[in-house]
Amino acid sequence: MSDPYRPGQYPPPGPDQTTRIPPVPGRPMPQRGPRPRPDGQRDKRREYLLKGLGLLLVAVVSGMLWWLIQQGGGSPDSAGAGASGKNKPPAGKYVFTKSTELSGPVRDSNCVEHSYRKVQTFFKTKNCTSLVRQLYSAPVNGKTAFASVAVVVMPTAQDAQDLKSLTEQDDTGNVADLVRDKKVKVGTLSNLSNGFAARVQDATVVIVEANYESGSKDADKQALDDVANDALRLGDELRQPG
């Protein structure tokens, strides 16, 4: 049996002996959060977000525009303008006004009875299917010019072209203007056959004759032809039913 240990029994450690150093408590490792995203990913995410907002804005604006179109402009002014515009001739060089002596367009279905000379003979073999006439007036060079607009519907497009060609020849007659046909009276005029213009579209011929209220001379023909040419556009409203 060995002897029990007593304090001071063993000498202190010499220079060749290593002193034990008590362990030092370690510091806790710091918690690592999620790695920050690279700048490229952040930019891409921002780009997608902006694109999405842009598409949403386009959809909203498109929806509003569609709603406004369905409402006819979305404002009382535009609606009123549309309603009043139905009674106004389309814009052109001269400002034409419908005659107040007529309650509306004069409608017929027999052109033989409302034509003269070779044109009447033409209608006897190829009568029209519809004839609509209206009288207009317009201020021109300090005078009042009257224009009788006739819309003639023929059975075929070829018939319409033949009629137009015939009316453009001299001394062949024409569809009677409303003054010649005694449907309306303009001063002392017996007809409006100084200015002339004609246009064909498919099976429809628009014929215009014009004259000044006080009568005209040969020197006025060019100006009245210009009035008649501008009045051709009025045939579009006469072609509408009603």
In short:
32% of the residues lie in helices and 18% in strands.
Structure characterization notes:
With 242 residues, this protein is of the alpha+beta class. The chain is 32% helix and 18% strand. The chain is built from six helices and six strands. It has helices spanning 39-70, 76-85, 117-125, 157-167, 221-231, 235-238, and strands spanning 97-98, 106-108, 130-140, 143-153, 195-201, 204-212. Strands 1, 2, 3, 4, 5 and 6 form a six-stranded antiparallel sheet that branches. The longest helix has 32 residues, at 39-70. The chain is elongated. Keywords: Membrane, Transmembrane, Transmembrane helix. The chain crosses the membrane at residues 48-69. Residues 1-43 are annotated as: Disordered. Residues 22-33 have a biased composition (Pro residues).
Give me the count of strands: 6
Mean pLDDT equals 82
Order of helices and strands: HHEEHEEHEEHH
What is the domain tally? 2
Shape: elongated
C-alpha Rg (nearest Å): 48 Å
Question: Which features would summarize this protein structure in a list?
Answer:
single chain; 242 residues; alpha+beta; 2 domains; 6 helices
What's the topology here?
Layout (H helix, E strand, L loop, with lengths): L38 H32 L5 H10 L11 E2 L7 E3 L8 H9 L4 E11 L2 E11 L3 H11 L27 E7 L2 E9 L8 H11 L3 H4 L4
Antiparallel strand pairs: 1-3, 2-3, 3-4, 4-6, 5-6
Keywords: Membrane, Transmembrane, Transmembrane helix
